[in-house]
Design a protein that fits this description.
It is built from 12 helices and 9 strands. The chain has 308 residues and is α/β, with parallel strands linked by helices. The strands form 2 sheets. It has a 5-stranded parallel β-sheet with strand order 7-6-5-8-9. Strands 2-1-3-4 form a 4-stranded parallel β-sheet, sandwiched between helices. Helix 3 (90-98) crosses helix 4. The longest helix has 20 residues, at 288-307. 50% of the residues are buried. It binds phosphoric acid mono(formamide)ester and norvaline.
């Protein structure tokens, strides 16, 4: 806990497996306390600024409700409204906000923006999604798998679809926690060599596999994960991507090739009939709404650890 105070979360690659486990355990404890009516407000009087350069339902609401439940306040800062959107440098924004706030969450395009914000801020900076990583989602996902399966190490997760921010973050998070991870994506849409090498370097007793074959990826998998084919910022590529990802839909036939008790996961928002069928996402192996709820709990634990 001591080592997390004051830290940033830019990518889970910067955290040890013990630190990740600490956050997951705290999340499960705080969730349990809350359901038992125990009110704990370790961030009383603290303020989190939340900068959004992209849309959000889950990230915005879970951070804002989360900081409130911890006794603090959240400020929604749309880049359309703050001077950042009119060209004020990120470094000046970081220094100014550091004088008012106790933490900043940012959702933006490039990972470099988040890094620059963190370098220039004297308070913790949390990555709420970039084009490259979505670490808060993976904390909630790991919590969900842990709650459902009772363990992480030794399990296998298969990600089917675009080698995007979710694929990247899942590779890193799974490798950290000793899970095997297979990514099935068509050529041209596979995770970058850079992130793949990072994940490989992290993985010790587990395997990181990149393939273009969904059936191979889901073989022996305990978790099947997918995400949209066109992420925020890629809307104009929708038609092209629907062609490229044909054959990468998670449907009953693909799910049946995984382990019988496999979980279906999706960070949401989802497109039924594209990356996943309604039958699967609304079926009894799906845990998508537990994942969504756990954004609240995982991020409350994260904020408690970094800002407490
Ligand atoms: N999964 C996720 O980050 O959702 P939002 O885009 O709604 O925040
Ligand atoms: N890959 C998606 C995730 C949304 C939570 C995107 O970046 O739009």
């Amino acid at each position: 806990e001591k080592q997390l105070k004051g830290r940033d979360l830019l990518t889970l690659a910067d955290y040890t497996s013990e630190e990740i486990q600490f956050i997951l355990d705290l999340a499960i404890n705080q969730k349990n306390d809350r359901s038992n009516g125990i009110i704990d407000q370790p961030l009383k009087g603290k303020t989190l600024g939340m900068i959004f350069e992209k849309s959000s339902t889950r990230t915005r609401v879970s951070f804002e409700a989360g900081i409130y439940q911890l006794g603090g306040t959240g400020l929604f800062l749309s880049s359309k409204d703050i001077q950042l959107g009119r060209g004020e440098p990120i470094s000046d924004t970081a220094k100014v906000l550091s004088g008012y706030l106790d933490g900043i969450m940012i959702r933006t395009f490039s990972q470099q923006i988040v890094e620059e914000l963190a370098e220039n801020a004297s308070i913790p900076v949390i990555n709420g999604l970039t084009d490259v990583y979505h670490p808060c989602q993976v904390l909630a996902d790991l919590q969900t798998v842990l709650e459902s399966k009772g363990k992480l190490a030794g399990l296998k997760i298969a990600y089917i679809g675009d080698g995007n921010n979710m694929a990247n973050s899942l590779m890193i998070g799974a490798a950290k926690m000793g899970m095997d991870v297979s990514i099935a994506a068509p050529e041209g849409y596979q995770p970058s060599l850079d992130v793949t090498q990072k994940a490989n370097a992290i993985a010790q007793d587990s395997k990181v596999v990149i393939t273009d074959d969904p059936a191979e990826a889901v073989k022996g998998a305990d978790v099947i994960y997918t995400d949209v084919w066109a992420s925020m910022g890629q809307e104009s590529e929708q038609a092209k991507r629907e062609v490229a990802f044909k054959g990468y839909q998670v449907n009953r036939a693909l799910l049946d090739k995984a382990n019988p008790e496999a979980l279906f996961m999706h960070c949401l928002p989802a497109h039924r009939g594209e990356e996943v069928t309604a039958e699967v996402i609304d079926g009894n192996q799906s845990v998508v709404f537990s994942q969504a709820e756990n954004r609240l709990h995982a991020q409350k634990a994260l904020m408690t650890a970094l800002m407490g």
